[in-house]
Amino acid sequence: MEVIVRNLRIAFPSHQGMAEAVRGVSFTLKKEKLGIVGESGSGKTLTARSILRLLPRQARVEADRLEFDGIDVLRADEAALRRIRGKRAGLIMQDPKYSLNPVMTAGAQIAEAWRAHRGGSGKAALAAAVELLAQVQIRDPRRVALSYPHELSGGMGQRVMIAMMLAPDPELLIADEPTSALDATVQAEILRLIEDLVSRRGMGLILISHDLPLVSHFCDRVLVMYGGRVLEECRASALARAQHPYTRGLLDCLPSLVHPQRQLPILERDPAWLGP
Amino acid sequence: MIEVNDLRVRFGSIAAVKGVSFRVERGAAFGLVGESGSGKSTVLRALAGLNRDWSGDILVAGEAQGPARTKDFFRRVQMVFQDPYGSLHPRQTVDRILSEPLLVHGIPDVDARIRRALAEVALAPLVRFRYPHQLSGGQRQRVAIARALMAEPEVLLLDEPTSALDVSVQAEVLNLLSELQRAHGLTYVMVSHNLAVVAHLAAMIGVMQEGELVELLSVEDLRAGRTRHPHTAALRALTLDLEDPETAKSA
C-alpha cells in the first residue's frame, strides 16, 4: 500500500470566485505513521479525506497525482472507490457521539460493517464483532456489544469506532482528531491502542491533530500545514526542534507545566507563510 | 471571596459531588481539574446558581447563598462557557449580546460601555455590528468574555474557556484573562481538564476524582511534583510526558 499525493489543490466556490482551501500539497505515505498538524482551516482534514475522495459535493479537486495503491482516486468510479473506502482505508472521526448510529447497538453496527465488507451470516458477524471489541481492549465485549452508544462513555465509544474500522482489515487508517473529545488519560489509552494495532497489523496511519506534542509522541513523520500548504516536514521526534517560525510559534504558545511564563508568546503570522 | 463547605450534589441515585470544600481569596484564581465525570463542572454550576439542587454551604463575599440567587448575585458573579459556538445567541448582533446584561441590571451608558468592553478584549469597534457566525472561534470567546464583564462583576467562573480553541488562540485568550484579572482585581474559578492551562492562570489547584476533591495544592507544589494523591501524580505525569518526552523518560 502506498499513497501518493502530488500538487493537490482543493477549492470551493464563494462570492469572490473560487476559494482555495488546499494549495499544492504533496506527500507520500507507506506503512508508517504520518501526522498532519495545523490550526483549524489549515486544510489538514480536506487533505486526508481527499485520499478517499470524501469531500463536499461543491469541492473542486485537482492533483497531478492522487493515488491509493496505484488506483487513481480522482478518476476512479464510485464502485472502485467503495472498494477503498472502509475496506482498504478506514476513517476514525473526532466525536463518537455523532459518528455512531444512536439507535443501533454497538455490536450490530460493527457486525454491519463486517458483513458489508466480508459477507457471511449475521450470527458469524456478531461473533466477529465481539472478537473485535475484545481486540480494542474492552474488558466486557459481550455487554458492550449489546449497549447503545448513549450507554457508553466517550473513550468506550471511540473504541467501538476503532473496532468497526478494523472489521474489514484495512491497510490504512485515517484518524481525524480521534481523541480531542476525550480526557487526557483516555486520550493516551486510545492513542496507545491505535499505535499498537497499526504496528501489529502493519497498517499505515494518518493522524490529524492540532496537538503538536501529541503527534510528535505517536507518529514517525509530521507535516505542518498552514493556509492550505505544507510549511514544514520533519521527523516526529524532532518536532520540538522544528525550524519553521510557524511551527516554533505553535510550540512556544503552549502553556507549560515545567517552564511557567507570566505572559504566553503570541504567534505573529507572517503573510509570506501563505506563499504565492 | 468564595467559600465552599461540604458541597454535595446528587443526580437521582448518583452522587456527583461528594462533600467538596475550598476557599478562594479575593483577586485570586482557583483551578479545578479532573476527568469528565469527576464533578468539576457540577461544582462550578452549583456555585453559579445554575443548579439549585445541592446541599452544603456556598459563601460569596461573606454572604451565604441559597439555592435561588438574587439579581445582585448574578451581577457580581458571571460565567464564561466552553463553547463560544453554543453560548452566543446566533440571531443577535454582538451589540445586542453585550447590551443585554446592561439592560437586565439597569446600568446606564450602554453605548460607551460596549465600546470600552470591545476595546478591552482587543476586538475592532466594527465587530459590534456582526453576528456570531461572522466571527472566528477566538473572536467569539472574546465576545463571551466581554459579555461576562459588562456588568462589572467581581467573580468570573470559567468552564473550560479555551478547550474549543486552537493553541495559538488559546494563548491569546489566556493572556487576555490574566490581564483582565490584574486590571479589575477579579476572582477566578476555572475548570479544565488541561493541567498546564489551569496552572498558567491559577495559584491554587483542586484535583477532583469521582466527585471528591482528592487534593488541594499550590501551583508551585504541582510544578515541582510535590503531590500527595496518586491521581494528581498521574495527571501530572501525563502532561509532562506529552510536554517533554525526553525529560519524562529519563525521570
Biggest sheet strand order of chain B reads: 6-7-8-3-9-10
Backbone CA Rg of chain A: 19 Å
Please, how many helices of chain A?
10
Major protein interface = A-B, 33 and 35 residues
* Count of DSSP strands of chain A: 11
Number of helices of chain B: 10
**In terms of structural class, how would the helical and strand content of chain B be classed?**
alpha/beta
Spans of at least 5 consecutive residues with low confidence of chain B: none
Tell me what you see in this structure.
By secondary structure, chain A is an alpha/beta fold. Chain A is 35% helix and 24% strand. Chain A has 10 helices and 11 strands. In chain A, a hairpin with a 2-residue loop joins strand 10 (221-226) and strand 11 (229-235). In chain A, helix 4 packs across helix 5 (122-135) and helix 4 (106-118) packs parallel to helix 7. The longest helix of chain A is centred in the last third of the chain and has 18 residues, at 184-201. Chain A is globular, with a radius of gyration of 19 Å. The model of chain A has no long low-confidence stretch (mean pLDDT 91). Chain B is α/β, with parallel strands linked by helices and 251 residues long. Chain B has one domain: 3-Layer(aba) Sandwich (Rossmann fold). In chain B, the strands form 2 sheets. Chain B has a 6-stranded mixed β-sheet, sandwiched between helices. In chain B, strand 9 and strand 10 (212-218) form a beta hairpin. The termini of chain B are far apart. The model of chain B has no long low-confidence stretch (mean pLDDT 91). Chains A and B meet through helix 8 and helix 9 of A and helix 6, helix 7, helix 8 and helix 9 of B.
